[in-house]
Automatic annotation (TrEMBL):
This is Probable acetate kinase. Gene3D superfamilies: 3.30.420.40. Pathway: Metabolic intermediate biosynthesis; acetyl-CoA biosynthesis; acetyl-CoA from acetate: step 1/2. Substrate binds at R98.
């Protein structure tokens, strides 16, 4: 039996799932799942589930980073008497790491010295993600020396975006030298969504065309044509496109020079291999819902009638609908579904209602009751009976997607030295 630890370091949370698999099987079987959330909005809380046991909302002290969260979860897993498979950490064969920016790397890589440094070099381009993921890789190397570390890149799914869509209209010599193009992120999630929705609709994923919305602390939209990414809202970095918990999303690039005169100087947060400027610090960490409302909890924002929270909610609806209509056109109106995923997409019924209302003229329409109380399935249809196009909710699972990937690619991965 093989044990896989699948680690998803998001900007506001760390989610870790534990799977077991028979040696020749490509199907991971989940044993437990732990999430620490609220890293950008304390109190930091633990959620844990194993079989029938569930812990929800335990408040934790002294957890300030993704690395702290990882260490806490690992200790929690080792000490759970109901999880004998993990009582010896030597039992862990693979650890999968979600790495947001992989540059031009294909989907998976064993993390050796070279990969590690490559990911480190890309840290400036995903300042909320790559460095925290690497801090967990380092902790794994120390604490689980027998495990093979595998990186899964959020950017790889978007390698199929056509050149005229991923090219920025700037001096191409500079663009090529500095690798400045649209990369796109949340790709592990979009791959999961593509497969899950295709299976729900009983279609070959290669023929599936959807508009997918991954709405979490970081939010993006993706136009998926025949199972492949055709366009997405994030860009060179995860800052572009939709606003997020602490991110501005797309703004006029000149704005920052009017916001602060020291936009180009190094931020105090620059450390080690991270060289981020004040502009990047402000737009990535001091903007978005936090700047507008003081909270990053979109559940709270959605249920409040305070002026700034209502404004934040309306901004999100507006920016999301700004992507749905053009993606609909890019798919020539041949759309299998509009899909909501991510913490806000899955749990935010009011947001779904307003977004779908905003694009109703295209033929999307919700069943109010199904939207309010969706069934607890991986994919749920919440469209009205007379809607021309389907609207779905997909409970995306980046950890499961990575575990499936590791098992599918096991032989190649086992051959490579760490
Ligand atoms: N009931 C709810 N309605 C709307 N948003 C919610 C609700 N519950 C949680 N959220 C939001 O989900 C987001 C977290 O999504 P998730 O995809 O788990 O984040 P991450 O980007 O860290 O992976 C947070 O912004 C949280 O406020
Ligand atoms: C890419 C990204 O923004 O990820 P997350 O939403 O997990 O922060
Ligand atoms: Mg996430």
């Amino acid at each position: 039996m093989e044990i896989i630890l699948s680690i998803n370091a998001g900007s506001s949370s760390v989610k870790i799932s534990v799977y077991k698999a028979e040696p020749s099987s490509s199907r991971p079987h989940q044993l437990a799942e732990a999430t620490i959330e609220g890293l950008t909005a304390p109190p930091v809380k633990l959620k844990y589930s194993r079989g029938d046991e569930t812990i929800k909302g335990n408040e934790l002290q002294d957890i300030a980073s993704q690395e702290d969260a990882f260490k806490y979860i690992l200790t929690h897993l080792e000490n759970d008497p109901g999880l004998p498979e993990l009582s010896k950490t030597d039992d862990i064969h693979f650890t999968c790491h979600r790495v947001v920016h992989g540059g031009d790397y294909p989907a998976t890589q064993i993390i050796d010295k070279e990969t590690y440094h490559h990911i480190e070099e890309l840290s400036d381009l995903a300042p909320l993600h790559n460095a925290p993921a690497l801090s967990i890789v380092r902790a794994v190397s120390k604490m689980l020396p027998n495990a093979k570390n595998v990186a899964y890149f959020d950017s790889s799914f978007h390698a199929t975006i056509p050149r005229h869509i991923c090219t920025y209209p700037i001096d191409q010599k500079v663009a090529e030298k500095n690798k400045l193009r649209k990369y796109g992120f949340h790709g592990i999630s979009y791959q999961f969504i593509t497969d899950a929705v295709a299976s729900h609709l009983k279609k070959d994923p290669k023929t599936l065309s959807i508009i997918a919305l991954h709405l979490g602390s970081g939010a993006s939209a993706c136009c998926i044509k025949n199972g492949r990414s055709h366009d997405t809202s994030m860009g060179l970095t995860p800052l572009a496109g939709l606003p997020g918990a602490t991110r501005s999303g797309s703004i006029d690039p000149s704005l920052i020079f009017h916001f602060t005169h020291s936009a180009g100087s190094l931020s105090h947060a620059a450390a080690g291999h991270m060289h981020i400027t004040q502009a990047e610090e402000i737009l990535n960490k001091k903007s978005g819902w936090k700047a507008l409302t003081g909270t990053t909890d979109f559940g709270e924002i959605s249920s409040s009638d305070e002026e700034m929270k209502t404004l934040a909610f309306d901004i999100f609806v507006d920016r999301i609908t700004n992507y749905v209509a053009p993606y609909f056109a890019k798919l020539d109106g041949e759309v299998d579904a509009l899909v909501f995923a991510g913490g806000i997409g899955e749990r935010g019924s009011k947001l779904r209602k307003e977004v779908v209302r905003g694009v109703e003229c295209l033929g999307f329409k919700l069943d109010a009751e199904k939207n309010e109380k969706p069934e607890d399935e991986v994919v749920v249809d919440i469209s009205a009976a007379d809607a021309r196009f389907r609207t779905l909710i997909c409970q995306t699972d980046e950890q499961l997607q990575m575990a499936r990937g590791v098992l599918g690619d096991r032989q190649r991965l086992m051959q490579k030295k760490t």
